[in-house]
Structures are given as structure tokens and as C-alpha cells.
Amino acid sequence: MGSFEATTTATDAAAATAAAITIPIIDIGPFLAGNETATPAIAAALRAACSNQGFLQVVGHSVPAALQTRFLSAVAAFFALPLRDKAALDQSRSACYRGYERLGGQKLDELDAEATTDQKEGFSVRPERALGRFLAGPNQWPPEGVLPGFREVYMEYFWAVHELSKAMFQLMALSLGLEKTYFDAFAADPDGICLCRAHHYPPTPPDVLGRTRGVGAHTDFGALTLLLQDSVGGLEVLHKRTGTWHAVPPVEGAYVCNIGDLMQRWTNDRYQSTMHRVISPLSNMDRYSCAFFNDGALDVVIEALPGCVEEGESPVYAPLRVEEHIVERYVQSYGAGGTLIGKAVE
Ligand SMILES: O=C(O)CCC(=O)C(=O)O
Ligand SMILES: [Fe+2]
User: Fold this and answer.
1) How far apart are the CA of 220 and the centre of ligand 2, in A?
2) Which among 126, 174, 198, 247 is least surrounded, fewest beta carbons within 10 Å?
């Protein structure tokens, strides 16, 4: 286990010197190997990270490096397809938020009217299901002849990260003093809603520097995010106390893990969902990343966990069903896209 001081952007340099934040790198290998002697220290490190900045990087995990590499190459090949091939899979053609999102298709910083739309392309995949409840339905894939093997490697990666996310929820439970299996009904539900969204951030030439943004400032909707990023950089996390932004430097093969709004609610604010964004650094490199969100089972009711409310204290939030929360956040970030809920795929 190790840690490093996150570096800061130039504009924030002065304030940040006083407020450097630590994003710990946590090796979960011993936990995955069933080492019960080492596990409490790992759970304690997770607790510290989640109670402070809500961001950490996970190493020693179960996703093979070779699979990450094959997956990121396949993702780069997908985004390099002609626009007409990608547009044929546009998310607006899906009743369940799957497929291709063009540049500017989402705006996560809804509070800042001046902010640009997000300068990224995305491709969203979820578990293959029959149409029915919110977010259930078929994925949209490019024809096998156009991108051979893409679907196969994407789904191989999907289920590998899904396994890791289940293990992370078990560690989260231990970190909160709960039974290891406490979150299994949420995180391992066969009908649970998971999203594996790959992103491409185009290079930023000097003439647009400062006017574009990869992803606007936001917190993640769900409980826990696992993000794979390549070596280009640009992800930043907000230090709440000083309002300064800090880079989350790429660590090869690691998963950036962060707490989402549902987990903050569940823990009665003990764990923090932290604002983050992707800036567009001056670069002639394309950046690729992939976020995995395990948002659990739609009917789970999120209310303060045992041990997260002191005697005499009232819970900060009323109980809320996962489905209500996720629907509301989708409508906020996709605007009119929210009206697609329940519409049949064309
Ligand atoms: O691409 C990244 O580094 C971050 C993406 C992100 O924050 C998100 O998809 O919620
Ligand atoms: Fe995010």
C-alpha cells in the first residue's frame, strides 16, 4: 500500500500548496486472496479514504493487465470508426441509454450555465436484457464485420470489472463495520443496473485551450465507480474545504475508485461523493477512459446504514428507492433524453 500527493493545476497552485490532498493507492490483493490477517488494515485504509476525499486508486485487483490493454485498444478502434458508423448506434435510438454519445451529448455541470457541453464521445454498454424496467434492454453494437471481436472483448472486460466491483462492495461493508456480504443484495443482484461507459477525449490544440472541457464538474450518481484511465491525464478532484482542483495522476493498471451520491446517502454523509471533472490539457494525444458504475438493484431502498447514525442523531436523508434516484439524475444530465424512458427501440 502506498500513497502520493496529488499535483495541482497551475491556476490553483498557490491555494493548493497549503491544501495538497492525498489520494491513497490501496492494494486489495491480500483481501482477494482471503488473507484475514491483512484485511482489517485494507478496510481501514478504505474507510479513511472514503471519509476524507472519497477518492482512491485500487491496485492488486483481479482484472488482468492484458485484458485492460486489449479492451482499451478495442475502444480506440471503435472511436476511430467513421462518424456514420457510430451515429448508427446513437444513444437516442435506444430506450435504455445504451450506445454511442457524440461530442457534446451530455452536460454534467448543470449548475454552470456558461460551461461548454462535455467534449467527449462515449459508448455505453449494460447487461443484455429484455426491454422492460428502467435501463433494461438490448445493447447497440457495431456489426461484427465492421469491428471484429469488439463485442466479445467489451463483454469480457465488463464482467471482469463487475467481479471487481462486487469485491469492492464487500470491502466497503467491512470498512463500515458491517458483515462482508451486507451489500451483496445490491451489488450482486442478477438484475442489477450496471453501466460500462468508454470515453474518448479528442486532443486539445492551443486555439481551443481553456474553452473546452472534457467532463464538467459532477458527482457520480450511483454508489461506487471504478474508472480505468490511460496515461494521458486530465481527471481532477475537488478539495471541498479550499475549493481547489487536484489532478488524479494516472497509475498504470489501477482503478480510480470513488464514492457516488447513493453511498453518501446510505452512509448518512460518513462517506463523501466528491466533485470531479476532466479538463482538456494542451495535448496532441487522444485520451481514453472507461467508467464502471454498479448502481445496484432498482428496488433497494437506501436509508442510513446501521452504525452511521449516532444515538440522538437523525438521519440526514429520507429513505429513497434506487430507481427514483437514478431516474431523476438521468433526466437532469440528459435533459430531454429523460423522456426516452419507456420508449421502444427503433
Ligand atoms: O474519464 C474520466 O476520467 C472521468 C469520467 C467520469 O467522471 C464519469 O464518467 O463519471
Ligand atoms: Fe464521474
Assistant:
1) 5
2) 247
